[in-house]
Amino acid sequence: MRKNDLETAAISAADRLERLPICNYHRFLFMVIALAFFFDNLDLAMMAYLLGSIKTEFGLTTAQAGMLGSASFVGMAIGAVSSGMLADKFGRKPIFQISMIIWGVASYLCSTANDPVSLAIYRVLLGIGMGMELPLAQTLLSEFIPAKRRGKYLALMDGNWPIAFICAGLMSYYVLASYSWRTMFLLGAIPAVFLFVIRRYVPESPRWLESKGRHAEASNIVDGIEGEVKKILKVDSLPPIVQTAMMRDQEAFGIKVLWSAVYRRRTLTVWGLWFFALLGFYGLNTWIGALLQQSGLEVTKSVLYTVYIACGGIPGFLWAAWVVERWGRKPACVSTLLGGAVMVFIYGWVASSAHTFIALVSAGAMMQFFMFGMWAVLYTYTPELYPTRARASGCGMASTVGRLGSLLGPTIVGVILPLVGQIGVFTVGAGCFVVAAFIVYRFGIETRGLSLEEISEIKIRK
């Protein structure tokens, strides 16, 4: 293939995808990927409700319980970094399916654990599967949705996180009333069979295929997508293609790109964002049920309170999905982080004092409004910052650094709780969100309304 032909082929799949009108094809693809994302988050959310029961059954100290709560994040760090590199090398779809197999098997194994050591080992394995899937879901979806609606759909996909958190709480409320925490992990293994739906309905990313020089395969997949869109819209032709300038230097792939002169600053920015945001979030949310129990609530009531509080996350992610397209990614990120910091501090003050049920739930719901909104912005912003040949690696590495924060968070809370009390714990969490907001405000870039290829070109010019 001549150089000019190669360049034309290299831009064709991405530009053809960008000109497509948003229709039911995109919505169906979104639903399939988002549902897999939901099942993964369901397993992840369970520990917030089960940690108190596990701590009681095994007679753990707060520090030991914190370490057990952090075990899955060790695996998530491993899974995130490995899946990113593997997906950039071997493709998004096969690694996505493998991740579902791993977390399904591991969730079942957690249900068989008879001591804290074996449970911790299985939680690490579960974390590997979850850590693999989460960055792949955002990478895959970002490469199919056109720029004009990409932010909205990525934010809505992450809205599955508060919904999964609530569903895990409702399941825990009814299951723990009659069964043990092991039953919850057993139920969490069942959705792994959803991988057959992924295998059947989700194509490989044409953007990834063209980045590997497999232009004919990319073109064939886009041909099929265009055919589906025409059928759904009942039209014979689609809008004209507007070619976008693309990076021609395709020598570096994966991790190497993250530390190139063009992307180094952005990598450090997104790593700082993920580390401090997840340090604060998981340090608080992994312990929130146990902290309520420590305040004197019985197990099932603390679970129900946590569910009520999590309901604030639903309007939070819906608001974030609107804001990322109206205000932009940077303002949305900074506002959700600062709002979260304020409400975390207020909730900590309310939870550590003798306040009414309404005050506790209201403050907690507002805290989750901003924190789950923050998640929606994180998953929107991160995949936009990297070129196709390194997008999965960029998302995976950001998630890995975030999982280090996730790993430290529950453990730090378990250690400092006896020393500073609940108000001190929530003050530390609020500080983490303030630091993350400053990093984005000072070093972040705006990506709203630009195609993934245009963002790469802007970074090169700068």
UniProtKB/TrEMBL annotation:
<dbReference type="InterPro" id="IPR036259">
    <property type="entry name" value="MFS_trans_sf"/>
</dbReference>
<feature type="transmembrane region" description="Helical">
    <location>
        <begin position="331"/>
        <end position="350"/>
    </location>
</feature>
<feature type="transmembrane region" description="Helical">
    <location>
        <begin position="423"/>
        <end position="441"/>
    </location>
</feature>
<keyword id="KW-1133">Transmembrane helix</keyword>
<feature type="transmembrane region" description="Helical">
    <location>
        <begin position="400"/>
        <end position="417"/>
    </location>
</feature>
<dbReference type="InterPro" id="IPR005829">
    <property type="entry name" value="Sugar_transporter_CS"/>
</dbReference>
<keyword id="KW-0812">Transmembrane</keyword>
<feature type="transmembrane region" description="Helical">
    <location>
        <begin position="356"/>
        <end position="379"/>
    </location>
</feature>
<feature type="transmembrane region" description="Helical">
    <location>
        <begin position="153"/>
        <end position="175"/>
    </location>
</feature>
<dbReference type="InterPro" id="IPR011701">
    <property type="entry name" value="MFS"/>
</dbReference>
<feature type="transmembrane region" description="Helical">
    <location>
        <begin position="302"/>
        <end position="324"/>
    </location>
</feature>
<feature type="transmembrane region" description="Helical">
    <location>
        <begin position="181"/>
        <end position="202"/>
    </location>
</feature>
<comment type="similarity">
    <text>Belongs to the major facilitator superfamily. Sugar transporter (TC 2.A.1.1) family.</text>
</comment>
<feature type="domain" description="Major facilitator superfamily (MFS) profile">
    <location>
        <begin position="29"/>
        <end position="448"/>
    </location>
</feature>
<dbReference type="InterPro" id="IPR020846">
    <property type="entry name" value="MFS_dom"/>
</dbReference>
<dbReference type="Pfam" id="PF07690">
    <property type="entry name" value="MFS_1"/>
</dbReference>
<feature type="transmembrane region" description="Helical">
    <location>
        <begin position="28"/>
        <end position="51"/>
    </location>
</feature>
<feature type="transmembrane region" description="Helical">
    <location>
        <begin position="63"/>
        <end position="83"/>
    </location>
</feature>
<feature type="transmembrane region" description="Helical">
    <location>
        <begin position="268"/>
        <end position="290"/>
    </location>
</feature>
<protein>
    <submittedName>
        <fullName>MFS transporter</fullName>
    </submittedName>
</protein>
<keyword id="KW-0813">Transport</keyword>
<keyword id="KW-0472">Membrane</keyword>
